[in-house]
Write a structure and sequence with these properties.
The structure is a homodimer. By secondary structure, chain A is an alpha/beta fold. In chain A, 24% of the residues lie in helices and 25% in strands. In chain A, the strands form 3 sheets. In chain A, strands 3, 4, 5, 6, 7, 14 and 15 form a 7-stranded mixed beta sheet that branches. The first copy, chain A, is globular.
């Protein structure tokens, strides 16, 4: 790590997939904490599919990253200097610190990690972080998942997907994961306890969902959109819920998104498709953290992370891993000293 | 009318639009009432967009019409012969009597019309029939429409659409209708009290919705699908509800349905899209009939019907009027003597 604060700032809005040249490397002096502020040394960056959307100018659920601004990222870090009454040097924290080595913070949106809770730091970007919150509220609140029901989740070996399946199992339901490749599918069933996994690269999703969920799908937690969404739509049970969490197959599309051709299945089965944004649940995160911590301690939920080690400069290629489907579990970039 | 019972029976499943040759004209003797049965002389046929779907073999919310069976249709009629304790010759009734001149019934699914209620017979196929029930439960129950909110309805000059807008007004909300042609649009605003009407044939739906609903659309009641659905999706307010009632633009499509490209707007706006089938509300029809009768009596809701007069043989071309957008209000075929 240099003596300066290295940052990646958004240079331009990508068309299609993001590439390295969409960010500028900028070096600034490490900031100092003013009154009511503290400085965080970034330890781990959360690498999320939503990042691609934040780079677009289009209206979305949060403002886009401005051209010239530090790329938005959730992270864990350690306080190294503080003029804030509630934070002291040495504290571990998690918050929206950005793709940079040091961040200045007023404490807004920052969560202080309790060192007495015996959980790996990475869990705060994973099952106890936005990832876990997204899975928890998406499945249980938006999806209204209940014991005995069947959830199908796409991108099941990804961060949110793997949490969704495990929460469904912890709640006494059935979990079917869709993922790309035999290795990921084995991981879902053998390591994470999914009932079934469907390899969309070698199987017909439509046929396999029928086989594994002969009575229909009660909740489809969709992270990908595209043809997989269409294949599951025609397998919905009555009064099913399709939870729209994302559409990773669509974010990099240059021809614009593809709509679900089979959306009229919602009418036939009296079902609903609903979008949500996890930040709306901020006031209820503690509920989820409580449940998830217990499940984590009981071994019902694994802290499924995929940690790359490197520097800020490795951010673009670590992000690209997500869209290549290379990660298994929550993708994290750990900034090595 | 002949001395026999003329019927239209489904001859084959159409590809694309239905044509006259998809039905066979069959003549049978007029039936006689066995024990617990009665015979209805059909007076008016309800002509519905859903009829096209009933002709397909595909799994849907009710079984398809079988090849060789009398074409399904809701109708009003008069009992001409009865061996049923609850029905007498002369009673006016409404039920699923089919495209034929005389129907034999056991009373299942039949509603006896109270002659003391001063309402035109056609209303029982319109605002007090399936049409009105669909509008009422779709807007208020599935859509959760509340006073002060804004509904946009497509195919607004159609039977269900015109009822949706009028119910929204009766409930103290704002109604914007989308219809084809200046004449229909004038009808919506001047005769039915819609706040605004958008002529999709001459205006940009997207721009006009923005103009008339600058704070976004709370409920979109969609009867058409296709590009209009896409245009309204990007104008949703937060936590909006898209009620899927039908997709008349898609039923005759030979290339298969077109999915809503802008469905991810549901995610950004935290909204839901939900399908429903009015028959599921059968146990609550009386609630709706009570409200609707009062609104009808108070002049808050018009019995908007478009009555063609003719014989059973005019059924195919009357159905075609719907898909040509030729009707204004509920399409009815009245069987003349």
């Amino acid at each position: 790590m240099s003596a300066n604060n290295r940052q990646l700032r958004l240079a331009r809005r990508p068309v299609g997939a993001a590439t390295e040249s969409d960010w500028d490397l900028v070096e600034e002096p490490v900031p100092h904490a003013g009154d009511g502020e503290f400085v965080v040394k970034v330890l781990q960056l959360s690498i999320d599919p939503a990042m691609r959307g934040w780079m677009d100018a289009a209206k979305s659920y949060i403002p886009p990253v401005e051209i010239g601004a530090v790329m938005r990222a959730f992270a864990t870090g350690r306080v190294i200097e503080s003029n804030h009454p509630q934070y002291a040097a040495g504290d571990l924290v998690t918050g929206e610190f950005g793709v940079q080595e040091y961040a200045l913070s007023t404490g807004a949106g920052v969560y202080r990690i309790d060192p007495k809770v015996d959980v790996p730091l990475s869990a705060y970007l994973g099952v106890l972080g936005m990832t876990g919150m997204t899975a928890y509220f998406g499945l249980l609140d938006v999806g209204g998942f209940r014991p005995g029901q069947t959830v199908v989740v796409s991108r099941a070996a990804g961060a949110v997907g793997s949490a969704v399946g495990q929460i469904a199992k912890a709640k006494g339901g059935r979990a079917i994961g869709i993922a790309g490749g035999e290795q990921k599918c084995r991981y879902l069933v053998e390591q994470l306890g999914f009932d079934h996994a469907i390899d969309y690269k070698s199987e017909s999703v439509r046929k396999s969902v029928r086989q594994y969920a002969p009575d229909g799908v009660d909740v489809f937690f969709d992270n990908v959109g595209g043809p997989i969404l269409d294949d599951v739509l025609i397998r919905l049970a009555r009064h099913a819920r399709v939870v729209l969490c994302g559409a990773v197959s669509q974010y990099n599309s240059e021809s614009g998104p593809q709509g679900p051709k089979n959306y009229l299945s919602l009418l036939v089965t009296r079902s609903r498709m609903e979008g949500f944004v996890v930040f709306d649940y901020a006031s209820r995160y503690s509920e989820a953290i409580e449940d998830m911590s217990i499940w984590l301690a009981d071994g019902k939920i694994a802290n499924a992370v995929d940690i790359e080690r490197g520097s800020i400069l490795d951010f673009p290629k670590t992000l690209a891993r997500l869209f290549a489907g290379a990660n298994t579990g929550k993708q994290i970039l750990e900034i090595s000293g």
